[in-house]
């Protein structure tokens, strides 16, 4: 097997309970060792810094890692491809997500730097919110299969930790949001109940309703969206009412709120079949 430059090999001798999902050769796990977490940070460096040209404040260039102050409180979810091995014979890390559970959010949330999320959390204080972020996939594995197994892994994680709602920012490339007006307008036009509304902070806010897509433009707007955002649409996610301009990452960010009990039934059946876990019995409290 070949060693791909976008991925990092690492030992995966973790207990079976740390395996969240498995589809084909792709396996989603909770990182349980410093080496596994380091592999996730190294993948983030390659994708965000080397490929996208981002310069966030936590970059450790001498170690080729992308990190920040929230990483220590987060769980790191990693995807490996067991069909591809490095020179040490270990599978390659080809994707990652980080998750901040409510009991670990002792320093607040990363998303608060761009969006006013505190009112949202207060309005739904009876629900368990988990922040997702720093999602990236190696260029060699950016396809439906990796997103599919990642979603199954997130479902298993939600069941494991009794999560009701995932939230966090998702990005369009480039901090000039005008180039994404059609897609942003489509997201803005989605119906959102007032108690689920979220706005970006005024200093970096960009309105999303500058362009109102015509019905004929919907397909073009969807095609122009990053695959991850299209994936959120498929699971009935809610999007914020304004976007955040992130100059450090050179992105235009939108707030995404995924209520697990609102995921369409076909996806729920798929997730349950792959993971063997049913969120219905795991959720702490249902939305009234």
From TrEMBL:
GO molecular function terms noted in the UniProt entry: ornithine-acyl [acyl carrier protein] N-acyltransferase activity
Broad class of enzyme this protein falls into: transferase
UniProt keyword terms in alphabetical order: Acyltransferase, Lipid biosynthesis, Lipid metabolism, Transferase
Pathway: Lipid metabolism
Stored InterPro entries: Acyl_CoA_acyltransferase (IPR016181), Ornithine_N-alpha-AT (IPR052351)
Reaction(s) catalysed by this chain's protein: a (3R)-hydroxyacyl-[ACP] + L-ornithine = a lyso-ornithine lipid + holo-[ACP] + H(+)
Top-rank taxon: Bacteria
Assigned EC number: 2.3.2.30
Pfam families with a match to the protein in the record: Acetyltransf_5 (PF13444)
GO biological process, one term: lipid metabolic process
Family to which this protein belongs: Belongs to the acetyltransferase family. OlsB subfamily.
Function: Catalyzes the first step in the biosynthesis of ornithine lipids, which are phosphorus-free membrane lipids. Catalyzes the 3-hydroxyacyl-acyl carrier protein-dependent acylation of ornithine to form lyso-ornithine lipid (LOL).
Protein name (Swiss-Prot/TrEMBL): L-ornithine N(alpha)-acyltransferase
Organism: Pelagibacterium lentulum
Lineage: Bacteria, Pseudomonadati, Pseudomonadota, Alphaproteobacteria, Hyphomicrobiales
């Amino acid at each position: 097997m070949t060693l791909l430059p976008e991925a990092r090999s690492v030992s995966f001798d973790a207990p079976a309970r740390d395996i969240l999902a498995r589809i084909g050769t792709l396996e989603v796990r909770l990182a349980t060792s410093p080496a596994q977490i380091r592999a996730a940070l190294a993948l983030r460096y390659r994708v965000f810094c080397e490929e996208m040209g981002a310069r966030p404040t936590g970059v450790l260039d001498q170690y080729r890692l992308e990190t920040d102050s929230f990483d220590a409180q987060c769980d790191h979810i990693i995807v490996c491809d067991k069909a591809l091995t490095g020179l040490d014979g270990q599978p390659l890390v080809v994707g990652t997500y980080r998750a901040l559970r409510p009991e670990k959010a002792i320093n607040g949330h990363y998303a608060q730097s761009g969006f006013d999320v505190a009112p949202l959390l207060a309005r739904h204080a009876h629900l368990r919110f988990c922040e997702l972020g720093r999602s990236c996939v190696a260029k060699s594995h950016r396809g439906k299969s990796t997103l599919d197994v990642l979603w199954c892994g997130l479902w298993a994680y939600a069941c494991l930790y009794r999560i009701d709602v995932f939230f966090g920012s998702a990005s369009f490339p480039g901090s000039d949001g005008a180039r994404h007006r059609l897609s942003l307008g489509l997201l803005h036009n989605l119906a959102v109940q007032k108690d689920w509304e979220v706005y970006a902070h005024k200093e970096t806010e960009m309105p999303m309703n500058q362009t109102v897509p015509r019905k004929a433009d919907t397909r073009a707007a969807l095609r122009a969206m990053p695959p991850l955002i299209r994936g959120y649409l498929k699971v009935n996610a809610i999007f914020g009412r304004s976007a955040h301009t992130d100059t450090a990452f050179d992105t235009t960010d939108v707030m995404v709120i995924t209520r697990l009990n609102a995921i369409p039934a076909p996806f729920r059946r798929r997730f349950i079949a792959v993971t063997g876990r049913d969120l219905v019995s795991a959720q702490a409290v249902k939305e009234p």
